[in-house]
Amino acid sequence: MVLAGSGVADVIETKSGARLVGTITKVEGSTIFLSTNYAGTLPVKKSEVVNLQTEQVRFVHLIDGKIMSGTVEPSAYGIVKVVSPEEAIEVPIRQIAEMWAPSAKDVAQPQWHFEAAADIVGKSGNREQFSTILSARAKRVGVHDTLQYYTGYRLQTTNQVTSSDQFKIGFDYANNYSGRKSWYVRDESGFDRVKRIDMYSVAAGGAGYDFLKNKRQKLTGRSGLSYRFESYEDPKTSSIKSFGLDLGAHHEIYFSDSKLVNDVTLVPAFSEFSNYHAMQESYFEMPMSMSGWKLRVGVANDYTSMPGANVKKTDTTYFTRFVLNWQ
Q1: CATH 2.40.230.20 matches 111-326
Q2: pTM
Q3: How far is CA 286 from the centre of its chain?
Q4: Average pLDDT of 240-258?
Q5: Intervals of CATH 2.40.230.20 along the chain
Q6: CA 172, 262, 207, 313 torsion-angle sign
Q7: Spatial separation of the C-alpha atoms in residues 68 and 89, rounded to whole Å
Q8: E strand or H helix at 60
């Protein structure tokens, strides 16, 4: 079945074989709205759409937070290509959270996304153990940049002895100024009372590059300069005040309704290159039946090559985390 209009038009193709012609005014939630001169505005279920294309530029907001400005072209069954002056990305139609015309929405205001997570574990009997990990993140996503604020606190006691007491707060800003190329600045501060770190701070900035960027996965590498500061409770342990490198990699693999994320960061000091701090976190995230809630299962490693006296170099955390997302 073909329903046609006149002039410049967008096209929606459905699983039933219908080809609907008109103007896509917006995409919200599970519905695509098509304005026609033969039937007014038609709501079309996104799950029934196998292809769509736009003649004019649209702003496309993906479910991972990324916003692009460009035309939308058919690519494969259920997959479209968003083409902007800087890049072209193939995405499943189901991953389009919103779409709007430039005149229909104030694009000067980026989209904010919020996240709160918690793991609380208790145990009694032969050994008493209590563990609490709380974290929060605010993420502002624009057409070409991303700003994140985050914080986290972890407290663990075993047989009434504190085995973990950590706090961190920081921000990360990245600007994709040209296709796969970006620049970034970041800063993180906090303390770790078990490692006897009274205060630490890492400020860094540099360049990034997207080695992989498609509908299934994204791999971004970073390289820059840093300034690392650490002061210790133990007066016998010298404080660290040094410029150094800032190296990192972020990898995401997307599945139909879940994702696998890997993060690695390495900060070696110029004053003594063998003195470095490395962090790694890997997790698998899947949706829960409750709207906005996700389950995150993973492992994190925190390695300091030259820790303070009587402190181990590596801390490993295995976690099962409940995450609430909203915007």
Answers
A1: yes
A2: 0.72
A3: 14
A4: 91
A5: 111-326
A6: positive
A7: 9
A8: strand 58-62
